[in-house]
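In the current project phase, the collection of sequences with tokenised folds has grown. One resulting record follows, to show the layout:
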Amino acid sequence: MRTLICFLIGALFGTGLAISGMMNPAKVISFLDLAGDWDPTLAVVMAAALAVSAVGYKVKKGRARPLLAEFFQVPSAGIVDARLIAGSALFGLGWGIAGFCPGPAIAALSTGRWDVAVFVVSMVAGMAAFSLMPRAK
């Protein structure tokens, strides 16, 4: 049952990405082009995501545990350090150059475009390389 619900949620997310055009890197890049032909669609998508998250956090406060898991997986407050800032900057740079972030890139694999596949393979390789790096303690 849990697998089916996860699949349905993922399908809903992917459908939302497709309908909003977020699988199209040109649309994302045009959002970042404030001085040119700016497209505010991504801002609307972000606002909708924040609204859904806010509702989720509100529902979470009234429950002891989720319906299909042992506990809530909520990010804990952490410190802002050089590693976080560098990772955020690298993510933003890659997003601005390629026009993809991980979720829409994986959803865009369904389009069969070779450039999307190259991006996803590169993204996975980068994640694998990062996981092999020693962590400072």
User: Anything to note?
Assistant: The CA atoms of residues 50 and 56 lie 10 Å apart. The chain has a mean pLDDT of 88.
